[in-house]
Amino acid sequence: MAKLLHVEDLNIEFHDHLIPETVVYDFDLDMECGEIVGLVGESGSGKSMSALAIAGLLSRHDMKKRGTIQFEGKDILDCPRSELRQLQGDEICMIFQEPLTSLDPVKKIGWQVEESLKIHTQLTPQERKEKALKALADVELDDPSRVYDSYPHELSGGMRQRVMIAAATIGNPKLLIADEPTTALDVTVQSQIVDLLKKINKEKNTAILFISHDLSLVSRLCHRVLVMKNGYVVESGNVKEIFESPKEEYTKKLIEAIPKCEAKPDEKDDEVNMVEVRDVCVSFTRKKERVDVLKHVSIDIKEGEVLGLVGESGCGKSTLAKTIIGLQKPDCGTIIQKYPNTQMIFQDPYGSLNPARKVGLIMEEPLRNLTDMSPEDRRRLAEEMITKVGLTPEYLSRYPAELSGGQRQRVCIATALMLKPRLIIADEPVSALDVTIQAEVLKLMDKLHKDMGISFLFISHDLRVVHQMCDRILVMKSGEIVEEGNRNDIFMNPKHEYTKELLKSAGLTNIFV
Fold it and tell me: pTM to 2 decimals?
């Protein structure tokens, strides 16, 4: 196989603070045509920075880069911008972690998916549209024509992520850099995307650099794996070696942090309801057409329980959460809450943090509005909560744009905990976190649940996390609850075909047999 990518002694140093900060040290990587390499490590370990450097997307003004990055023999670290632009979007494409911030909010999806074709090909508008519709269909989006004519805000988080994948693969690049491409997707679509990436790799011989904190996906997709910690590559090897015989303690820690599904005794079912949702309907009007999102949904959330809610992207999970918390008005039905002050952890951390405010001010805002705490006490509580979610108090003086995706998610979780609510609605609260930080945050949430009696409505596409955290589970499809039951019943004896499909896609069929 021909050498496609050669990276040697890559060092990246930021100069946008008073003291220069090195985030990548002596990074080496060789990739052949058609090879799939996984890049894993904790948030802030340097994975995304290394990938951005390879894609030529790092600023050339406020940072210092040294080393070698060669793509098919061409130096792309210091080559002229005009040459680099010929490669970007054509030979080298990237799928970003947060689709909402990567998509232009004022351009329709079709325009954005076709953009690279406009720059790098001579196709007619009709030919571009045909290729765009096929690309949208290839990533398993229902009704590609409707998606083509939609704006990003009209799609769910998972649908936007699939649009990004379609846009990145439409030009058949030689190197595809996928930075957490399945973060916002449910397990069935994750499985489809992994199969799609395998198909692209096999049929078009596309090399893929796959960055993920989901080690199960890395093991299913990649040929080789690099493990990063604090800017260094601490271990590398083929998938079997890394997952079956890891040498470094840090690699062992990552693997041990993967949530395990083990049979557990069911909790007693004698708690009283703290939230009652009865016959709730929610619909939206899109292009003068009514779309039913929630269809006569009725659920109970009991005091002191963790209730899981699973289902495909776009099925109505987040809409139900927003309706319960009061951010969405229902068309019909009633919602009765025993306690006020319900807090929510949103799925998209960047979209829910004020970019003009420092983290400390963001975290203290609910205390300023709803309590009489002194500035000193507010600061002290912010420092305590930021530490509990795995960050240091130094992060309180940073802006959201200065944090990685996982770090922003932890800030959102810490902010939701500031008022110590009785109910927290957690919408994909650990989807952007690597497995070790995910394990720490889940442990923190479990401790809050047990020590303080906080109830959680826990929305997630990661069924292993749901099994670890939840007492009862609701399965939603197309705006309806199709199955509900205690944890063991749902995992060991699912009744509905859709529940069985979810478990199969996650590789959890007959896990206790």
Answer: 0.73
